[in-house]
Amino acid sequence: MDLKPLKGHHHVSAITANAQKNYEFYTQLLGLRLVKKSVNQDDTSVYHLFYADERGNPGTDLTFFEIPNAGQTYPGTNSISTISLRVANDASLLYWKERFEQHSINHDEISYETGRAVLTFRDFEGQRLALVSDEENSGVKGGTPWNKSPIPKQYGILGLGPVRLTVYRSEQTAHILTNLLGYQETRSYPSPVLNQDPIRVFETGEGGTGAEIHLEGRKDLPLERPGRGSVHHVALRVEDAEELKKWVTFITEANLPNSGFVERYYFRSLYFRDPNGILFELATDGPGFENDESFEHLGEKLALPPYLEHQREAIEESLKPLHTK
């Protein structure tokens, strides 16, 4: 089948138990823009919050489902174990290290992975995050930080960087990445854990920080028990709905159970799991978040796709107010 290469990351969706604190951390401390305040379309009783660059360009979205009773995450294998966020250069990491120290954010020292400066840190629920320098990046272009962010624009977050998968049977996930999704394995780098296999780097499309998946094989860990501070799925970019329909056919013919074509209003999607249980989504670049709100007012009100609008009153009554001003 004539499939175009995937274009890189589309979004990553994670879990929080507290939408209010989540909003404050990701907008006020990290400086991302809330571009859409909506609900989980599969469970409209909980928020789905989308943080991104100035207009929610594909490849810049970090989203959260609020699950108020979510328990603690016990990290382990068969998980999306690190979300990274891109900044312009190495000097930006010095700014962020100082900011984290000022705000008592749990962080490590600046280190280097596969030639890039990286600053790992955790949010208030233990979400595993990293800032990665784009100083040497020549791949997929980053987004544009919002000019109303509390972060000086030169240090602002540009979008999603490499996503790390930690799995028990790494060859099974490597097979999905290369033989099914068309990624190329380009290099590897040493694991920070003694006596473990190197971490393998897979790239798609134009490559670079916005199109890399880092695959970590670990036999020494239990299965992850997800909860607040864990990642639900990673979404990869497809150009449009017609291309997505080809992927539905391709993945179905590969005998991989999947969701089929799913309408999400802001984009169209296809979901499937690899043999290690990693949930992948393929998502279209459009229509985008200005379908129902203007650029100037993105994320200010509860946005519902047209097929949920008739339930607005009941949905709003079920949600705890979220103060976003």
What does this protein look like?
The chain has a single domain (9-318), classed as 2,3-Dihydroxybiphenyl 1,2-Dioxygenase, domain 1. The termini are far apart. By secondary structure, the chain is α+β, with helices and mostly antiparallel strands. It has helices spanning 19-29, 90-102, 170-180, 241-253, 312-318, and strands at 9-16, 33-40, 43-52, 61-66, 79-87, 111-113, 116-122, 128-133, 159-167, 184-189, 199-203, 212-217, 231-238, 262-263, 267-273, 279-287. The mean pLDDT is 97. The chain contains five helices and 16 strands. The strands form two sheets. The chain has an eight-stranded mixed sheet. An eight-stranded mixed sheet has the order 6-7-8-5-9-12-11-10, with helices on one face.
Write the layout of secondary structure elements.
Blueprint: E1 9-16, H1 19-29, E2 33-40, E3 43-52, E4 61-66, E5 79-87, H2 90-102, E6 111-113, E7 116-122, E8 128-133, E9 159-167, H3 170-180, E10 184-189, E11 199-203, E12 212-217, E13 231-238, H4 241-253, E14 262-263, E15 267-273, E16 279-287, H5 312-318
Parallel strand pairs: 1-4, 5-8, 9-12, 13-16
Antiparallel strand pairs: 1-13, 2-3, 3-4, 5-9, 6-7, 7-8, 10-11, 11-12, 14-15, 15-16
**What's the mean pLDDT score?**
97
Provide the β-strand percentage band: 25-35%
Helical segment count: 5
Question: What is the helix content?
Answer: 10-25%
End-to-end gap: 48 Å
Question: Given this structure, which CATH class is correct?
Answer: Alpha Beta
Number of discrete domains: 1
Looking at CATH, the homologous superfamily is: 2,3-Dihydroxybiphenyl 1,2-Dioxygenase, domain 1
- What global shape is seen? globular
Q: Total number of β-strand segments? A: 16
